[in-house]
Amino acid sequence: MVYCPRCGTQLPDDAVYCIKCGASVNPTGSAAQPQAQAAPRAPVIAPMGATSMKCPDCGAPISPKFGEMVITCEYCGSGITLGNDGWSSIQKQTMLLAKFTDKDQMTDRIRQLMDQGLLHRHLQESSTLVDLNLSLVPYWIVPVSARTSIVATSMVMETANIATTAALFGVMAGGFRRSFPVAPAVRFGMPFGLGLGGASRLGMMLGGFGMMGGGGGNRKTAELDNNYNFPVVALKALSEYQPKNYTFNLAERALFDLTKVPKGIPVLNGDIGEEDAKNQARTFVSQVQSDKAHSQYHMIQQMNTEMDVGDGELLHAPIWFAKYTHKGQDIILILDANTGTPVNVMGLN
Fold first, then answer.
1. What are the backbone angles phi and psi of residue 338, rounded to the nearest 5°?
2. pLDDT tens, 212-239?
3. In this predicted model, what pLDDT tens digit does every residue of 131-147 receive, in sequence order?
4. CA atoms within 13 A of residue 148's CA, in its CB half-sphere
């Protein structure tokens, strides 16, 4: 038996180069046992505009396409980034296994999603399928701890004040009509037939009541504390399909291994770096926190969100991309092939 002296892959007896990492094999054909894993190498630095490079882990040639920043070595599966300081290995690179790989199985799942609701009956059958494909898409998983402080008006107290004011207004208006019988409102341009003195006194009394009822006693403070492992798609071409508030099943993720990727499923490279992903995660989480706050509290007067953002992890997620047309409108579904759940849906109202 012959083994690659670099990565330990078992090779044919007459092999000259390793079929996995491209390293030269001992020309004598003597069996070389797998070597113990070497200590981590220092980052390999290259110019930002580099068009060719060797993988820092296995030495295989890599030729990134224009704009790519997150590259997966097709020989050893190592994750590599090209940032302002050149190439470096990604320390944390994981993947989710694809459990829904059959097109017919996924088509049935899509039919269930599209036909939900009375108005959508037989929607999938009456739509034209334009594209349906499965890919391994890179996402930056950014851990974010968000704390949102809220100052809101109590709806119960506010409703009671409004009702009391309306009732008092009716009582006072009736009283002023009896106490100050004057000409009709048209004569003075005032409502309810009140004279100048009646309207003035009524306005003063209601104004005083409003001051007493509209103080700060109805305000309440609250906090929303949430932790997220927020996914940011690492490919600019797919940014329009960015998840709004989706969480991958990270409990099932494993270290990235090319041998576990089903044949025929492309592994996409990314062009969004970690720092850009962190900035995007801040923006997305801030919006999610705002949506949650408005769903729980009404008449929010003040809101402030503080966030702690950790280091990102590159996750390769199996994603089904489905596109239909229905009466001239596009319907797009992005589905997680690990769980079968929708990551994002567009065109279904």
1. -85, -35
2. 444 455 778 899 999 999 999 999 989 9
3. 999 999 999 999 999 99
4. 23
Helix and strand element counts for the chain (H, E): 5, 15
Helix (H) or strand (E) run with residue 108 in it: helix 103-114
Dihedral (C-alpha) 32, 55, 316, 98: value to the nearest 10 degrees? -40
Residues paired with 153 in a beta bridge = 219
CA dihedral angle for residue 271, residue 274, residue 278, residue 280, rounded to 10 degrees: 0
> Which one-letter amino acid corresponds to residue 240?
E
Please say whether the beta carbons of 330 and 322 come within 8 A.
no
For the chain, report the end-to-end CA distance as a whole number of angstroms. Answer: 61
CB 200 within 8 A of CB 188: no
The number of residues making up the chain comes to: 349
Residue 271: C-alpha distances to residues 90, 137, 140, 207, 258 (Å)? 14, 12, 11, 61, 20
Task: Give the H or E element holding residue 309.
Answer: strand 300-309
310 band by pLDDT with thresholds 50, 70 and 90:
very high
pTM (predicted TM-score): 0.62
Alpha-carbon distance 50 to 120, whole Å?
50
Report domain extents, the chain: 103-149+221-346, 155-219
CA 230 to chain centre: 6
3-class secondary-structure state, position 173: helix
- Spell out the residues 6+ positions from residue 315 whose beta carbon is closer than 8 angstroms to its own: 94, 95, 96, 138, 139, 140, 141, 231, 248, 250, 253
Distance CA 264, CA 135 (A): 9
Measured over the CA atoms of residue 295, residue 297, residue 302 and residue 307, the dihedral's sign is negative
